[in-house]
């Protein structure tokens, strides 16, 4: 048995840029005693789904937490074996530019992503690192491998969504590869129905897209009465549609993909649930290349592995966090991963950014 968690080591709220705003929800969830941890309303675990705000822009709250322990966490249960041989988790602090999503200059960086050009992962990467180049990859594992061999500087990985919950397979990739989390970004996902120029909705007999996109738009597709065909990814569906000039077929993808491939948008907001947010992690080779501003809230992701399924280990870990007023924003129990983490493995320390970016 093992537990993965995300922790806040907060200082002050990041200053909002013109592209992002923050809204604080009134409800919270306590994970450890004395309200030392609060859910931040992202990562698929919000106490309630806030209604989409006016003018179609998706917003969510910033971090609301207490100060951490001088930027580092000591070992658990009297041990110091954090992240292999490190005694403590050190946060790199600078007085420079923002370390949060959307605050870094991506010029000169190449980001590997799964899918074809126009994928949601690519848009998330370009929002997190404006000016970056992107490298399409066939599979998520290929994107991580590209960073390990030096073909890319970052890999972007979707790890959870409000509609599907945690992507455990992608968390498994974090443990199988030696990369560290350098950044996070939350993306509001809009699904659109795209077709070749001049094709009308009544002429569509089949819709192609990623299986998750088809599932997320099930009610709308049922009303259309069309056949559904899963393909590898949303942007790949658009690429297939365009290259084969399919006049009886539509694809579910983003409005940006329509612009990129020159397709018509037959319908906007096709998803069954209006609040559809995906959280992405940007990964790099260790050590993390990101320096945190002195006024930034820091988040640490780690995995704690133990044998025997005892709850005592979890209680001791939570007690260590509680006594230091460290906020716990997410806790996930995963079976059978002791071989990846002997006791504690730190997946990364990075600036917390709970802004939801709307790319529409």
TrEMBL record:
Upper lineage: Eukaryota, Viridiplantae, Streptophyta, Embryophyta, Tracheophyta
Comp. bias regions, Low complexity: 1-18
Cellular component aspect of the GO annotation: chloroplast
Protein name per UniProt: p-protein
GO molecular function: arogenate dehydratase activity; prephenate dehydratase activity
PANTHER family tied to this protein: OS10G0523700 PROTEIN, PREPHENATE DEHYDRATASE P PROTEIN
Domain (Prephenate dehydratase): residue spans on this chain: 110-285
Region (Disordered): 1-30
Keywords, in A-Z order: Amino-acid biosynthesis, Aromatic amino acid biosynthesis, Lyase, Phenylalanine biosynthesis
Gene Ontology BP term (one): L-phenylalanine biosynthetic process
Pathway(s) where this gene product acts: Amino-acid biosynthesis
Superkingdom: Eukaryota
PROSITE patterns (UniProt xref): PREPHENATE_DEHYDR_1, PREPHENATE_DEHYDR_3
